[in-house]
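Example for tutorial group B:
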């Protein structure tokens, strides 16, 4: 059994993690020459079927990883769609992100993502900005990015571990019904299937990819059978196997 317990972390806690990361990156620009802080680029993406506990797994994984590193080092943070969008839309944070990346190895993502499209309607421009921000975050390292086809967007970047969390439809329906307080299981089933389609449509529309394709991932975890703690333990083992140890 894992030697840790699952903790429920709030959105406020995730935001605090992100703020700490940006302060760290911002401080890199004020350090004296010759006193640079180096860390290997390593990041994790988590894709999940609707109704699986992607957030609980990511939050616990970040907590375990942060216990293993010093307080003065760059700490792990969890990014979901809303946090990536916030970074994308906040000019100051975006500037910090780009400036600090100048001190890292160069990763040319613009040509890669532009090559996927022949034109750039407004939705494509929004996606490109979102995807480029996601790619920059991964290039900095020590981030866990949840959803939004992040495994596919960051597939050209070395140093990543890509995982997908799955479970049977009936199990996920029961989980969502309890969480959303939906008494009618047929209604809950339609709710789950609708969200599954929407998640798949994002990758299909913008990347012509199927997030259900197992080739996008290093690891497929069945939460129904493993639970949260064992899923986190297996992710930690996979990091060691891929030589991404903390």
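The residue assignment follows.
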């Amino acid at each position: 059994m894992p030697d840790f317990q699952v903790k429920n972390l709030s959105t406020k806690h995730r935001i605090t993690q992100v703020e700490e990361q940006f302060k760290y990156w911002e401080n890199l620009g004020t350090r004296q020459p010759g006193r640079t802080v180096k860390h290997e680029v390593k990041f994790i993406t988590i894709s999940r079927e609707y109704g699986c506990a992607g957030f609980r797994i990511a939050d616990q994984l970040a907590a375990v990883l942060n216990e293993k590193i010093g307080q003065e080092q760059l700490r792990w943070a969890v990014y979901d769609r809303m946090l990536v969008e916030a970074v994308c839309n906040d000019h100051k944070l975006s500037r910090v992100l780009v400036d600090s990346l100048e001190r890292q190895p160069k990763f040319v993502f613009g040509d890669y993502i532009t090559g996927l499209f022949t034109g750039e309607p407004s939705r494509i421009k929004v996606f490109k900005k979102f995807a480029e921000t996601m790619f920059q975050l991964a290039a900095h390292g020590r981030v866990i990015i949840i959803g939004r086809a992040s495994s596919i967007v960051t597939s050209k970047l070395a140093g990543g571990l890509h995982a997908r969390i799955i479970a049977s439809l009936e199990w996920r329906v029961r989980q969502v019904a309890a969480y959303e307080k939906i008494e009618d299981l047929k209604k809950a089933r339609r709710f789950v299937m609708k969200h599954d389609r929407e998640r798949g449509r994002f990758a299909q529309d913008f990347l012509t990819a199927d997030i259900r394709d197992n080739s996008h991932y290093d690891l497929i975890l069945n939460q129904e059978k493993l639970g949260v703690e064992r899923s986190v333990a297996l992710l930690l083992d996979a990091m060691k196997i891929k030589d991404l140890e903390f």
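The chain has one domain: 11-241. Compare this with the pattern of hydrophobic and polar residues in the output above.
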